[in-house]
Amino acid sequence: MATTSAAKLAEPVGERDHVLGPADAPVTLVEYGDLECPYCWQVNPVIRELRRRLGGRVRYVFRHFPIRTSHVHSQLAAEAAEAAGAQGKFWEMQEFILEHQEALDETHLLQYAAELDLDLDRFKHDLDENVYAERVKEDFKSGIRSGVNGTPSFFINGVRYDGAWDLESLIDAVEKPLGVQVRLLAQEFVRIEASGGIILLISAILALLWANSSISDTYFHFWETELALGFGQSAFSLPLIEWINDGLMVIFFFVVGLEIKRQLTTGELSRPRRAILPLAAAFGGMLVPAAIYLIFNAGGPGEQGWGIPMATDIAFTLGILALLGSRAPLSIKIFFTALAIADDLGAILVLAIFYSSDIHWISLLIAAVILVVLIGLNRARVYSPLPYAILGIGLWLAFLESGIHPTIAGVLLAATIPTWGVPNTRALLAQCVSVLDEFKVPSAQSTNRAQVAAQTLETVADRMQSPAQRLEHGLHPWTTYLILPIFALANAGVVLEFDQSLLGMVSVGIVLGLVFGKAIGITLFTWIAVRLRLADLPRNVSLRQIFSASWLAGIGFTMSIFIAGNAFRGNPDLLDEAKAGILVASLLAGIIGYMLTYFTSQTYVETSHVEAVPATD
Predict the structure, then answer these.
(1) Residue 526 near residue 288, CB atoms below 8 Å
(2) b/e map of 362-380 (b: 16 or more CB within 10 Å)?
(3) Residue 249, phi then psi, degrees to nearest 5
(4) Are strands 153-156 and 27-33 parallel, antiparallel or unpaired?
(5) First to last CA, the chain
(6) Same fold, 18-191 and 195-356+405-418+472-600
(7) Is 18-191 in CATH node 3.40.30.10?
């Protein structure tokens, strides 16, 4: 699943920085700015008023981030500000430059220096010899390391501020009233890439403690509680565990389906040559573990569980890669995201083909009709989510009665959700600017105009994302922080008995398949694809690093438990043995993968897509 991370200030404020305000101020506001950027000029008065309002409570720091690809004089302007700073007038020159962005060639910069009574010979020498180019370059590189990709970018006490730039919003962000603090704490946790894995791990631990406690009976009885939905004289009833596994998990698979669709249309799986490597690696990572499992279980009572060690838990895998920080380059994280998506697709196909029974063809025909109607809505460019939601419920009910696992309904529904091409951002930007420019002219109807402007901006924002993207982003937090933890709490509880749970052939096959099979399969098939020149290794990644990180793919957990529940639905003893094996294998794979990746990887500094780091002339 997609994840986000909080941008942190990579370089702490030091003596080389330009600072306004007391060193002991409780709040430090750092701005990465481009002196030729019109938005930096527009926000500058807001920063001045913020400093005036808060006085000694805020310390303001300015760092250069010249984007020379779009602002041809930005590098020279930054060096001019530094040259003025060497004569004690950095802030005065910065104000001059921001107020005269239309004229920033050397001749005009010399005029501004003269108005500030600077030593012109020294100032001109500093510009001609690029004395401060390296100083500007250091600021730019620190911005890249901090995750800056545009100007202005603000950091409040070391954390990037992504809120509104108006004065009241900035004051709220700095002073942090209680409501803002609660929101920021929630946002900070959500931005941690490993946060989903943390919640999932806590849920699994709670389930294990509950199932192995003196009140373990309550655990199993609770999840078997019947829950009914009534419609007049009719009632639809399922045990709570089935509502979770066959109901809530449909939403999870719907989000997985949306992510698969995005990857196939615009992501890593959209280009054949880029898709070959993660697809080959995922295929090897499914084939070899299944083969290892069958070595121990072919012909035995546990044979049906061969699909269990094929799965990878993306939340845990990417969470541990996030904990490795700069020792895991971005390219390897992207590679494993694409691999996990392909792995999820494989697990879905395995569920649909091999773990379905007693097919009811009338229900399947009804499902097919509903699916055709959904495709028709897509072709007719119906973008409202309501008809898709209503028909989606019907599709789920049809699959629930058909004998094919109902979670497939979520994936098929996701495939019908509309997407559209990349919007014309220039036109949309012009529309936003036009709407906001109307407020330059005073009007008695300012309240009504504000409402109309807000509606227009909301429409523009909606156009930037297709219905599929909006649904994916909207549902992702629910699946990550609610549905998957509930699933773990309901399914990870198993009574651990070492001699029975961990020494059976099912458990042994799962442990060896996940821990060793995943690493061997992913590495071997990656090597074959590269050797046959079907694909190239990701940038900054060696085969040794692929091997080290591939152990993390042995964390099966969510998907493995899900497949185990379907493989051994009528055999609780084998199901408990399978769950025990999954838990042990996931723990071993996580520890081994983390250690190997840590010790076989160097620290990487990721580059930005903004532009190359400016070089000295």
Answers:
(1) no
(2) ebbebbeebbeebeebbee
(3) -65, -15
(4) antiparallel
(5) 44
(6) no
(7) yes
Tokens 């250091």 belong to residue:
138
Residue whose pair of structure tokens reads 């409040």 in the numeric block: 156
Give the integer Cα–Cα distance in Å for 191 and 4: 5
Signed CA dihedral, 215, 218, 219, 220: sign only: positive
Identify whether the C-beta of residue 518 lies closer than 8 Å to the C-beta of residue 546.
no
| Tokens read off for 348 | 């879905």
**DSSP assignment of 334-349:** HHHHHHHHHHHHHHHH
Distance CA 122, CA 86 (A): 10
3-state secondary structure of 156: strand
Whether the CB-CB separation of 110 and 125 falls below 8 Å is answered with no
**Residue 167: exposure state from Cβ atoms within 10 A (0-12, 13-18, ≥19):** middle
> pLDDT by residue (tens digit) across 206-229?
988 998 888 888 988 998 888 887
Q: Which residue has the tokens 């107020």?
A: 99
**Three-state DSSP state, 583:** helix
At 506, list the tokens. 């099912």
* Structure tokens given for 364: 């399947």
Token pair belonging to 483: 């549905």
Pairing type for strands 58-64 and 226-231 reads unpaired
Give pTM, 2 decimals: 0.68
Place of tokens 């694809």: 529
Model confidence pLDDT, tens digit, residues 61-93: 999 999 888 889 999 999 999 999 999 999 999
Q: Of 50, 72, 67, 47, nearest to 151 (Cα)?
A: 67
Burial class (CB in 10 A: 0-12, 13-18, 19+), 432: middle
Residues 195-356+405-418+472-600, CATH architecture: Up-down Bundle (1.20)
